[in-house]
Amino acid sequence: MYEKDGEKYFIVDSHSHFWDASRENWKPGREEFAKGWIDCFYGYHQLGPPETHWDYEKYLKVTPEDFERDMFTEGHVDVAVFQSTYLKDWYTNGFNTIDQNAALLEKWGDKLIVNGRFDPREGDAGLKQLEEDAKKFNLKGVKVYTAEWHEGSRGWSLDSKEAYKFLEKCQELGIKNIHAHKGPTIWPLDKDAFDVKDIDKAATDHQDLNFIVEHAAIPRIEDFCFMAVQEPNVYAGLSVVIGGLMHARPKFFAKVIGELMFWVGEDKMTYGGDYNIWVPKWQVEGFVDWQMPDDDAFTDYAKLTTATKKKILGLNAARLYDIPVPTECQLDAPAGAMA
To answer: What is the pTM of this model?
Structure first.
């Protein structure tokens, strides 16, 4: 929980990881891509304040003790959602698998939610694995990486008939939150394989699922906004938006937040710190203090209220994941509002 000026913020970090990019995990013969991937992440890491930068060796693989300190002790996070990213084409044991993430449940199970993943190119075996994971971990969400490489294929689409089998399986299993990476590319993945256009059809055809578009599809912010405004079950995930832009690109950050506020709205935006690309402490504290610039270029953008920030930093994700919120962190319902 974070408190500032008498206001208490319940923090749900809806996009975090516990990865293994150590050299020992680089797949033989694929080391170039394993290194290139984590080097690209390390480049994003430099977009945070200089005092938060880590040395490269630490960045490859943090310890459980690092995670506890950075997220819960210093980072103000009340509940973190682990997003699984496999990348077994380059990492022998996977980059950030559900089993790696779940290893931390024993110690911090009351503070962690582990999400699964699926890849329609895995066919029936993938459907079976999704079902097994759902039962084992009581999955409420999955992360999909449409640009991931798999057996010579360099991407897939959420609006394909193969992907629909997995979305229907999610519905059957009660997995309601589909987190889709639709944002900046990471070398060597192809940028166009992260295009947001497949969300449109998939969201319309599966209206009882929530599609959280991670990284708000930047740099395709306009395409995303004009699509998301008409899809009530499409949300903007602010992972990378806050961590990558708030400090390093403040004017662009203001533009992105302004567009999201206008088109998507404060009730459909979720905070994600993207640990361990960045730590959450400076992101949470900075966002609470952040104000839309006063100069003329931003006059048509909405100001963010304390209530807005509380929703974005935790309350919206708590609603999606049925997370209980302490009374002192809740917002008073406006008169006449539906329960």
So the answer is: 0.95
